Amino acid sequence: MREIGIDLSQKATKHVEDFRKDNFDYVITLDENSARAYQNSENTGTIHWRVDDPASINPDEPEKQLRLFRMVRDQIAQRLRLFVIVHVRSQTSSQLAT
């Protein structure tokens, strides 16, 4: 992520259960366990994007693993851009029309 100007050094991973009491318009999950854990959330659009897990690549193949991390990062970025165009902008347009 640092390659694209995002510093995650002070961030920690969290489980979907850590957000169970929070309210969201949408939840996007990237793995099957998180998708199952959040599928019954009320008033929340749940979207599951299946992506390859770069950590599943043999650590003895660092170049292959790095390529997969970059590919997954770029896939998520592209999907987020499309998500914003389709969901967020269309909601904003319909709110302006009322």
Structural descriptors:
98 residues, mainly alpha, 2 domains, 2 strands, 8% strand
Write the layout of secondary structure elements.
Layout: E1 26-29, H1 32-38, E2 45-48, H2 62-97
Parallel strand pairs: 1-2
Could you characterize what this model shows?
This protein has 98 residues and is mainly α. It folds into two domains: 1-50, no CATH class; 54-98. Helix content is 44%, strand content 8%. It contains two helices and two strands. The chain has helices at residues 32-38, 62-97; strands at 26-29, 45-48. The mean pLDDT is 83.
The overall strand count is 2
What oligomeric assembly is this protein in? Answer: single chain
The Cα radius of gyration reads 16 Å
Q: Termini separation (Å)? A: 40 Å
Q: Describe the main β-sheet briefly.
A: 2 strands, parallel
Count of helix runs: 2
Number of separate domains: 2
**Average pLDDT rating:** 83
Q: Please bin the fraction of helical residues.
A: 40-55%
Question: What is the beta-strand fraction?
Answer: 5-15%
Instruction: Give the CA-based shape.
Output: globular
Structural class: mainly alpha
Instruction: Pick out the low-confidence regions.
Output: none
Strand order in the largest sheet: 1-2
User: What order do the helices and strands follow?
Assistant: EHEH
Please give a quick description of this structure.
With 98 residues, this protein is mainly α. It has helices spanning 32-38, 62-97; strands at residues 26-29, 45-48.
